[in-house]
Amino acid sequence: MELVCPICNGMVVYLLRCAHCGKQMENKGTITEFLDDYSAYLDLNITERVDGAAYDKCIHLFYCENCNYDKRISVQRVKI
């Protein structure tokens, strides 16, 4: 069994309202995808070690296009 992020693997959809304006926020992906131009293409075993989160968490960046607010959400990885 391995731990996977349910959002990254399309198992769930996470809906989040902006705390500032109330509009729907958009999931922009994992925070590690924003480290540099090539981080989105690196193996997860490498990138999951640099986000500062526990091994069983995946940090996603949510962004509000209406007011430019962003929020990081810690998602519990699940065993499959």
Structure in a nutshell:
By secondary structure, the protein is mainly beta. The chain has 1 helix and 5 strands.
Mind explaining what this structure looks like?
It is a single chain. This protein has one helix at residues 44-47, and strands at residues 3-4, 26-30, 57-63, 70-76, 78-79. By secondary structure, the chain is mainly beta. The protein has one domain (3-79). The radius of gyration is 13 Å and the shape is globular. The termini are close together.
Helix-strand blueprint:
Elements lengths: L2 E2 L21 E5 L13 H4 L9 E7 L6 E7 L1 E2 L1
Antiparallel strand pairs: 1-5, 2-3, 3-4
Keywords:
80 residues; mainly beta; three-stranded antiparallel beta sheet; two-stranded antiparallel ribbon; 1 helix; 5 strands; 29% strand; globular
